[in-house]
Amino acid sequence: MIGQLVHLLGYEFVQNALLAGILVAVVAGLVSRFVVARNMSFAVHALAEVGFTGSAGFILLGLSPVLGLLSGSMITALFIGALGLRIRERDSVVGVVMAFGLGLGVLFITLYSRYASEAFAILFGAITAVSRADLILLVAVAVITIVGLGIMYRPLTFATVDPIVAEARGVPVRLISILFLMMLAAAVAEAVQVVGVLLILTLLITPGATAERLTAHPGRATVASIGVAMLATVGGILLALVTTVPVSFYVTTIAFVCYIGARLGSPVLERFRDARV
Taking Cα atoms as reference points, which of 121, 76, 120 lies closest to residue 98? Predict the structure, then answer.
């Protein structure tokens, strides 16, 4: 098995898949912690599903489905950010936007006269089909997202922990919310390459939820979240290369095992920390 894996690593499509997986893991791990802390799991689902609508629309026009995915996710992020700042409003806005977006997606797929293999790849993930051109786009999106999160890390953390006090201190909470949603949309567009729209919650929620169980320190939680995303993504790709099982199964399974391990191990970590104090 190891020899087979080493042999496969010499192929360009495998190298592309691993590079894309690493990029996706870093971005998803960074964003995931804030998704969990800001209770935005439903928003992730909406961004992914309406992103699929964007892909279907771009395929209908003969354009890149990846660019369509990114465009659909970004437009959805703007709608949610502009219309649903308050938590009690946000879920309703997300539901309304997602329902309309899915209706458009059905229309686009119906109008497409040929078999939309690209659209179904977006649904279920196709990391081994990532080309060099797709990889360049992923690098650009990852760099913009990472730099953006780095710039707004402190105000975003403040607005996440206590939005009322943050707003009173002059932090532009609405703008921060919209910008974070835009970065979340970019992360969705990347993560879909690995696990697809239907399993997007794996990379954008499970790493953050796992990290939250391991530590309350923001910096260490971010590192732990990236570590879980990296282990699930790269490990899933490598295991899928030497078996006939899809990448998405391994990614979701590894992430789930990490989460269960964190839940079972968190009481032990707490006792250890208490003993040191």
Answer: 76
